[in-house]
Every structure is written in C-alpha cells, then in structure tokens.
Write a structure and sequence with these properties.
alpha/beta; Deoxyhypusine Synthase; 6-stranded parallel sheet; 16 helices; 50% helix
C-alpha cells in the first residue's frame, strides 16, 4: 500500500477545547476541520492568504437578500474600506434595500412564524424573518425618483456610473443625518469601487427608472458598456501581470456576470487569456440540478471562466452567505492589513479604451490571417 502514508499525511483531528476567549481565527483554524466547516476554513485561507495580495483584483457578486440582513454594514462596507473588494456585481434589490440604511430608514428583526395577512393589514413587509414598514419602500422610491430627475442623469450611462452618482447622494444624506457610512453604495462611491447590476430592470430601482421614463426621463442603462467595462477590469488586471479573483455570494445572474468576463475575452473577443485565477463561492444551490448557482469551479473551466492550472485555488462552500460572509470577513480583517484602494471606478475610461485598442489589434491580425 504505497499511498497509505500520503493519504494519512493530513493533520490529526485533535482540536483544543473552545473557550470563552477563543478568537475567530483560532475557531476557524482549529475547530473547522471537516465537512462544510472545512470548506469554510479553506475559503478563509484562500481569501486572506492569496486573494488579498496586492496584485490581485477582487470582484464580488451579491445575490440573495443580503443587505436587508445587515451584511452590507457588518461585512461588505468593512471589506470595501480595507481595500479588500475592488469591483462588485449585485442584484438591484440588494442595492435598493441597502439604500434604506443610508437614508436613515430601519428594518427590524422579526420571525417567519407569523400571519402574513396580519402583517399586510398592519402595513408591514416581510423578508423571511425581517420586518419593515411599507413606508420604507415609499420613502426610498421617492428618493430615487427625486434624484434621477437631476440633469446629470438625463442620458445613457453604465450601471457603474449610475450607482456612483447615486452613492454620492446617499453619502451626502448620511452626512446630513450624522449616520456614518451605512450604505455600501456610499462606501463604493467614497473608495472608487464600481458597482454593476447585471439585470438593471429587475428591482425597485429599475421600476422607478421606468416610471421616470414615462414622464420623459432620458436616463437609459448601457448594458453593453457594463459588459465591456467589467471585461476591461479583468483584462487590465491580468495584462498588467496581476491576477483576477472572484468572490461570489450566492449564484444567479451576478455570479455569471463576474465570471463571463473571461469567455468574453477568450471566446468572443478572441484575445489570449486563461481564466480567473481565484474562485471563491458561498452557495446553498446544488450542482446536480444543472443551474449556474450551484455549478462547480471545475465545470467553469469548460466555459473558460477559470484557469485550469489554478483549480486548486477554487473553493465552494455549500453554506448560507449570512453565516459564511461574516466569518470570512472577520478572519480576513484579523489576518491582513488594509490594501491600497485600486479605485477602479476612476480608471474605467482608461481600461475601456485599452481593451478596445487591444481588441482591434488582435482583430486586424485575425483578419490578415483570413480568420472570421
């Protein structure tokens, strides 16, 4: 049995007792030894030890009702402030509910064991075990409609530019109310983190933009610009000799949007690349149903989304993001010093033009060789 010693080379399972003074780092490193706890330990190590090197550009995707649960304030804003997240793709719903907090509106701990008819009759909205006043929606709708009436919004723009401009208004509201930073859009504005929405019409923000269109607003979202800007971010990260990492919370459209940057480069633009270097996902979706939300990083290799040589640097935690993200955040903040902010929003035009220039060069070469 020549491989016996190799198989038994892992550390013996002999964790020290957990005490009242056990830290998050000690808990993860010493007690998370098997099953999904072990995957979470691997995720913490991947994020803190490799993805947060200075030469790595980290893209995050947000799916599921994370900001209503307070994860924007507890985890995502600290990650942005420490330079640990460089660009974001989110559902519009997460950004809409994130805005409540920046406007001084509140959401409350509730319970799923309640009559929804009774909640409806009392004007209370429920997201599983989160309760909030229906007027929170009305007030937030009014905020968006009032802001996007401004002249600066009366044109076509990428969703990153839209969110950056909205973030400035939210930041000013936070300052006026003396709140500190409560909105991730405000934090993204302050630190130059571009925030994209893969389906801009699929949220209450999109609904209010559509309402304004009926009144003559000229605001339009340039989704092709979103595709090219996110692709340019990844191309810029890799062509400068750095690495690209994706940190995906949930699955859905935002997961695909951060991953599709690589097949866009390789398959569609025909430019030489190999895939994202680091892949970290927290999901409760199964892979065997065929949906993208549960698709494995090894499957992503076949789509040229992940570099096949970097597959060991890929971790999937089959876990609730509301459990996994706070632990990964606490671990990373304890283990890593803040990184310099890349401020990719400020460099969008430069990266976009560089991608365009490089693509046209490769296109000319292919045409000269008789390729379509």
């Amino acid at each position: 049995m020549p491989d016996k010693e190799r198989y038994l080379a892992g550390r013996a399972i002999d964790p020290p007792p957990i005490t009242g003074s056990t830290t998050v780092v000690e808990l993860v490193d010493n007690a998370f030894l098997a099953y999904n706890a072990a995957r979470l330990r691997e995720a913490c190590h991947l994020f803190a030890e490799k993805m947060l090197e200075d030469d790595v550009t980290v893209g995050m995707s947000l799916t599921g009702a994370l900001t209503p649960a307070g994860l924007g304030m507890s985890a995502i804003i600290p990650l942005i402030e420490h330079g640990f997240i460089d660009w974001i793709v989110s559902t519009g719903a997460n950004l809409y509910h994130d805005t409540h907090f920046g406007l001084g509106l509140t959401m409350h701990v509730g319970t799923p064991a309640v009559s929804d008819v009774d909640l409806f009759q009392h004007g209370v909205v429920r997201i599983y075990d989160i309760f909030f006043d229906y007027e929170v929606l009305i007030s937030t709708d009014k905020f968006f409609r009032r802001v996007i009436m401004a002249d600066e919004f009366q044109r076509e723009m990428s969703t990153a530019e839209f969110h950056y401009r909205i973030g400035r208004y939210i930041h000013e509201r936070e300052k006026a109310l003396g709140l500190g930073t409560k909105s991730l859009l405000s934090a993204a504005y302050q630190y130059g983190v571009p925030v994209y929405t893969s389906s801009p019409g699929d949220s209450s923000i999109g609904l209010n933009v559509a309402e304004q269109a009926l009144e003559g607003s000229r605001l339009r979202f340039d989704v092709s610009r979103d595709v090219n800007e996110t692709t340019a971010i990844v191309w810029h990260a890799k062509r400068d000799g750095g690495k690209s990492a994706v940190f995906m919370l949930g699955g859905g459209s935002p997961k695909n949007f951060v991953l599709q940057t690589e097949p866009q480069i390789q398959e569609v633009l025909g430019m030489p690349e190999k895939g994202h270097d680091y892949y970290l996902q927290i999901t409760d979706a199964r892979p065997d149903t065929g949906g993208l939300s549960g698709a494995s990083p090894s499957e992503a290799i076949t789509w040229k989304k992940v570099d096949p040589d970097r597959l060991p640097d890929a971790v999937t935690c089959y876990l609730d993001s509301t459990v996994g993200l706070p632990i990964i955040t606490a671990y990373a903040l304890a283990k890593r010093r803040p990184r310099p902010h890349k401020r990719l929003y400020d460099r969008r035009e430069e990266m976009y033009e560089n991608l365009k220039s490089e693509y046209l060069k490769f296109l000319k070469i292919r045409q000269a060789q008789g390729e379509p």
